[in-house]
Write a structure and sequence with these properties.
By secondary structure, the protein is an alpha/beta fold. It has ten helices and eleven strands. The structure holds cytidine-5'-monophosphate and magnesium ion. The site of cytidine-5'-monophosphate has 19 residues, from α2, α3, α4 and β5.
Length: 286
């Protein structure tokens, strides 16, 4: 049905169930389909050339507009909070306040740096930002078939929009909800607009008033793409879900986190830097 599911990176706990969901998505047809995706480390790559690829925050944190002192402080935050973010032995309840702390401190540091709105395009151009292999087919397929793509990101909206703009795939069917920067009349970063989105509140609580899912109420077939346990709730605001296929990229601490991912995601992609499986499924559905 989908040859890409035979890739060595694919792990599935219940193959029969996955087959049923894909079949149901196909029967329901393209008009009912929508895709909900995380951005950082899901649409963007986790590793490149043996190194870590940057998240949208990292792109800013390490850019030339940040002072050396600012860079060090932002890096210290990452080294302290990232292991907590991905720790399989802590509950989401334990993690949530700590994530709020991380994002709040990082955003405060960024605001101190007097970043100019006009610098953003150049910062992204000079960065090592990379979308997963196969991104063009992914975005093109969705665009051509008028399938809404909702990017739900705890990263920095201005940066990730610029990444997909520079990749020439920021089509009208793409909608982004993320943390956006607020600028003064002079174009200097003064704040981040609320509500704060972190890894573990990606659910309807931060979408109040957007009306996004309400206006797509006939799109009851969902493909959800994520890389974190926090991404599993991204579709909670969809008024009626008939069929949902959850695909999870397991990038880091693969052994320790495998069981949790297999229990929560229908399809787990281990250390797979491509969108091959997603594209294969889309090709089968469209
Ligand atoms: O879940 P999502 O991919 O949208 O979250 C953004 C990612 O950005 C998190 O996984 C986190 O590791 C990373 N991050 C970062 N620097 C921060 C805050 C978050 O790299 N200051
Ligand atoms: Mg992510």
């Amino acid at each position: 049905m989908v040859p890409e599911l035979q890739k060595a990176t694919v792990r599935i706990r219940q193959p029969e169930r996955v087959r049923e969901i894909i079949q149901a998505l196909r029967e329901q047809g393209v008009a009912k389909l929508q895709v909900i995706s995380d951005f950082d480390m899901t649409l963007s790559r986790f590793g490149c050339n043996g190194r870590r690829c940057p998240t949208s925050h990292n792109i800013l944190d390490t850019s030339r507009v940040i002072s050396e002192d600012g860079k060090k402080k932002l890096k210290d935050l990452l080294h302290y909070y990232y292991p907590i973010e991905i720790d399989p032995n802590r509950t989401l309840e334990e993690k949530r306040p700590l994530m709020v702390e991380w994002w709040t401190k990082a955003h405060e540091l960024l605001v101190q740096q007097k970043i100019h709105k006009s610098d953003i395009a150049q910062i992204v151009r000079e960065s090592e930002a990379m979308l997963r292999d196969g991104f063009k087919e992914f975005f093109d397929q969705l665009h051509k078939n008028n399938i809404p793509l909702f990017i739900f990101s705890a990263g920095v909206g201005d940066i990730l929009e610029e990444i997909i703009r520079q990749a020439n795939v920021f089509y009208p069917n793409v909608n982004v909800v993320s943390n956006y920067m607020g600028f003064s009349d002079e174009g200097v970063l003064t704040h981040f607009k609320g509500p704060l989105i972190h890894t573990y509140n990606k659910n309807n609580t931060v979408l109040q008033g957007t009306g996004y899912f309400q206006q797509l109420s006939t799109r009851t077939s969902i493909i959800l793409l994520g890389d974190s346990m926090g991404d599993l709730t991204m579709a909670d605001g969809v008024p009626s879900v008939e069929n949902i296929l959850k695909i999870g990229f397991l990038n880091d601490k693969v052994e320790e986190r495998r069981k949790k991912y297999l229990d929560s995601y229908d399809i787990v992609l281990e250390s797979d830097e491509t969108l091959d499986v997603v594209n294969g499924i889309l090709r089968y559905l469209l």
